[in-house]
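> call design_seq(struct)
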């Protein structure tokens, strides 16, 4: 893989999957722009990348991507600093699992604002510079929960389904202008986000997700970077995600049967 002197903008690049992908791209010669809210985490990620790959130019930009003006300013500043992006990865995302009735509406609104609109705003503002050069890759980060609705993820799953709708409808439009669109469906990945999710996951969700293999952020990053290189549309790392991506509608009744059985067992155990 050779991304020499390419400019990669990565939202959510200060942690987890975004940071691992930034590091992998930097190791292949790319220059990196990281966008996230917390300056200290951004600075730490920048130091980590430069320390490992001193040839890489790394710039950081603070923004809440759910705020349209902040997202636009951060992308514009990254372009002003390092030129049009060859790669845009929208990894900024949040997840608050819980029972539908217990979660306030604000969580649903915020999750859609960050995961869906935070992605959309960044693509909108980066795209003209990519279309002008008729090149580049845009990678949206969805989730297995963007392929099937997961118990306890009523704010999160719809936001990740929405990204799938955006990527699928955008793909053809951008193909004619030379810009590659991809969507990644990472499995459970060992990141700070997953650790936070585990604190509020209902026990039924814990049990449903327990059998799924947990990936490292580094291995998910390898799948994402390979997907960019091969200009894949769907990036579904591993066998489980590969099957889920290809067969989700077909196997949905079986999965629902299995999930319902788990829910009944967990609830019986609670009594
Ligand atoms: N971990 C998993 O199991 C898993 C599985 C499937 C999909 N995903 C998806 O992968 C993506 C990355 O998740 P991760 O697990 O790597 O999480 P993570 O380690 O918590 O990283 C999330 C990143 O997003 C940034 N971020 C969060 N809210 C933001 C906002 N409003 N504006 C700008 N930046 C924001 C965070 O920095 P600040 O907090 O400083 O803003 C951080 O850099 C997410 O879209 C997630 O839904 C994760």
């Amino acid at each position: 893989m050779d991304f020499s002197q390419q400019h990669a903008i990565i939202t959510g690049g200060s942690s987890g999957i975004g940071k691992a992908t930034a590091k992998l791209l930097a190791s292949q010669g790319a220059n990196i722009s990281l966008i996230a809210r917390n300056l200290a985490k951004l600075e730490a990620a920048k130091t980590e990348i430069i320390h490992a790959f001193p040839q890489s130019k790394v710039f950081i930009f603070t923004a809440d991507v759910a705020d349209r003006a902040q997202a636009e300013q951060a992308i514009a500043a990254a372009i002003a600093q390092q030129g049009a992006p060859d790669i845009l990865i929208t990894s900024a995302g949040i997840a608050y699992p819980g029972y539908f009735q217990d979660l306030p509406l604000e969580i649903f609104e915020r999750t859609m604002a960050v995961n869906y609109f935070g992605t959309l705003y960044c693509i909108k503002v980066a795209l003209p510079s990519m279309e002008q050069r008729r090149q580049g890759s845009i990678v949206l980060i969805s989730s297995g929960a963007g392929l099937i609705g997961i118990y306890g993820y009523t704010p999160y799953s719809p936001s990740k389904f929405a990204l799938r709708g955006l990527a699928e409808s955008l793909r053809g439009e951008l193909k004619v202008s030379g810009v590659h669109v991809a969507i990644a469906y990472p499995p459970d990945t060992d990141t700070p986000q997953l650790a936070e999710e585990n604190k509020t996951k209902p026990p039924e969700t814990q049990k449903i997700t327990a059998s799924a293999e947990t990936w490292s952020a580094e291995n998910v990053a390898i799948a994402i970077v390979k997907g960019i290189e091969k200009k894949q549309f769907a990036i579904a790392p591993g066998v489980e995600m590969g099957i889920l991506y290809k067969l989700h509608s077909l196997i949905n009744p079986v999965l629902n049967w299995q999930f319902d059985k788990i829910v009944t067992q967990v609830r019986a155990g609670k009594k």
